[in-house]
Description:
The chain is mostly helical.
Amino acid sequence: MAYYDDPNYPGNPNPWYKDYTWYGGYDSNDASYMREMPMPPTPPMPCPKPPMPPMPCPMPPMHPMPPMPCPMPPMHPMPPMPCPEHPMPPMHPMPPMPPMPCPEHPMPCPKPHECPQPDVDYYTYPSNLEDALRLLEDSIKGERHDVMYYDCLMKMAPAEDRKIIEGIKEDEKRHGQLVRTVYCEMTGHTFPPTPPMEIKPPKSYCDGIQDALYGEWMAMERYRKILYAMQRRRHINMLTEIYTDEMKHASKLNYLYTRNECWEKCSPNK
Ligand SMILES: [Fe+2]
Ligand SMILES: [Fe+2]
């Protein structure tokens, strides 16, 4: 008998149990009987759960808290000053200095060295101030005279010289204004207007140039003396301008004297 006909072989029908239809006629060793048993009814499917509510929006990320500042360390109280074990002794006043002994032969004071001095000292302020004010008054009158004199000389001059002489005349006008300003600011008084003066025309144009040249030299000497007594920078500047203008005038007159060959034409008594 083949193994597939053996009733005791698992899975083959066993005739001994053929009347037990509920059993299926299988051998007790046959595990496949379970496949013949009716399946129990499946339980009803549970009701579907309601859908899950949507997840809430995520919370914004929390900013990290700044770190707490480190607490200041507690101030330690100042320790008390230690008491000196040995108190300082009181200061004793210094004994008075003994008087200096009188020298038996005191040294004589050396006499100051005497430097040679100029015969006329108009260099030192304020001793030169009075003369300087008087020279300022002379200058106001002199500048007025010079304006009129150069106006006269310009009329006698050849055409090519007139522009130079006119320039000198304009300078003399400005000098008169500047000197009046310096005088008023130093004295607090306005110098009275200078009345018109009569000008005697020179004998010739060359004589006129020569006289004007002498006048410029005198003006230079006068203004430098005034300058020695000036204290304010403003007045020094004004006097320096006038003084250097007079030097320019002398130089221009020398030029005109030469260009007109005045050494041949001036009066013999000059
Ligand atoms: Fe002048
Ligand atoms: Fe002048």
